[in-house]
Amino acid sequence: MVVRGCLVLAAQADGHRVDTVETPNPSRRLKALQDAFVEHNALQCGYCTPGMLMAALELVELHPDAEREEVREWMSGNYCRCTGYHAIVDAVCAVLEQQKAGRFADEPVEARA
Questions:
Q1: Does the domain at residues 5-100 carry the CATH identifier 1.10.150.120?
Q2: Which of 29, 42, 95, 109 fits as disulfide partner to 61, beta carbons 3.0 to 4.6 Å?
Q3: Angle between the 49-62 and 85-100 helix axes, to the nearest 10 degrees?
Q4: pLDDT tens per residue across span 60-74
């Protein structure tokens, strides 16, 4: 489950696994999203990037058949000051297409606390 770090106290995360975009060994899906954000120029200023990446990761894991409009709706909870939404949606859709083509078939989706 994705949560907003600015609204969750550290004590509330006690006993739970916390994943971030800075993980030293990212999953292949997260790495693919990071690469797609670069490729599609979805990074912009970078302010929203961590939240966008983690929200996108949850989307590709939980809704692998999501269509473009579903991606737009899912990602709308994150604010991008640079209005890079089109590039962000393009990047997420590119990874969804990779996933549909079987690129991550051998990588299980991990349960998140």
A1: yes
A2: 109
A3: 30
A4: 999 999 999 999 999
